[in-house]
Amino acid sequence: MIQKHEIYRGRKFHQVCRGARQVFLRDGYEGASVDDISRAAGVSKATLYSYFPHKRLMFEEVMRNEIAEAEKQIAIAPDNALPPSLGLPVVVETMARDAVSEIQTGLYRLGIAEARRFPKLARDYYDRILQKRSAILAAYLDHWVARGELDIADTRRAADQLWRMTGAALAERAVLLPQSTLKEASLREACAAALELFLRAYGASRAGDIPAAAQ
């Protein structure tokens, strides 16, 4: 017999999760009704409850899946032989595009809105998405520091600074102004301007070391 705290993973489990995802990302946890979720999933409320005894369990399952999928997207592989003036734009712009994607902005919005109600999920999101971005960026900075092309004492702090000026700022715009369209040219210009400042601050101030888009 299934206990109240357990999730039944039957034939329509993924169908139910897809419907719940659609409604949670659109309406948030509090605004999502079981009626709306059952309609979006194409199942009866009785079927819905047979899989998830209550909405909280459903939200936790959906968020865990979304975080896992979003984490897979954070993968950057520029040519390590490139100098920072060419490699950093690839890393930063790619990560910024991911940060303003539908899945990432939806997670960001829900993570902030429900941090108090679901602190463990918020922590998981922070560690596996937000912190991972900084860790990946710091690893690339370490590579260029080791080659003597950047002069950075604390690459993790520098990575956080660079991300705040680029992807984080663009993601905040996408979350707070969802109706506005962020064009590719705008994204690249924002990243190039931040990179020009960053490279000047950390020793790559020669004209040849400044991203072409920022000159």
Protein architecture, described:
The chain is mainly alpha-helical and 215 residues long. It folds into 2 domains: 52 residues, Arc Repressor Mutant, subunit A; 141 residues, Tetracycline Repressor, domain 2 (Orthogonal Bundle), CATH 1.10.357. 69% of the residues lie in helices and 0% in strands. It contains 10 helices and no strands. Helix 1 packs across helix 6 and helix 4 packs parallel to helix 7. The longest helix has 28 residues. The chain starts with 12 loop residues before the first helix and ends in a 14-residue tail after the last helix. The relative contact order is 0.11.
- The succession of helices and strands, N to C, reads HHHHHHHHHH
Judging from the principal axes of the Cα atoms, what is the shape?
elongated
**At CATH's second level, what is the architecture of the largest domain?**
Orthogonal Bundle
State the major sheet. Answer: none
Quick structural gist:
Residues 33-52 bind DNA. Helices cover 69% and strands 0% of the residues.
What is the strand and helix layout of this fold?
Layout: H1 13-31, H2 34-41, H3 45-51, H4 55-73, H5 84-99, H6 102-113, H7 119-146, H8 155-165, H9 167-176, H10 184-201
Helix pairs in contact: 1-2, 1-4, 1-6, 4-7, 5-7, 5-9, 5-10, 6-9, 7-8, 8-9
Protein name: TetR family transcriptional regulator
Keywords: DNA-binding, Transcription, Transcription regulation
GO molecular function: DNA-binding transcription factor activity; transcription cis-regulatory region binding
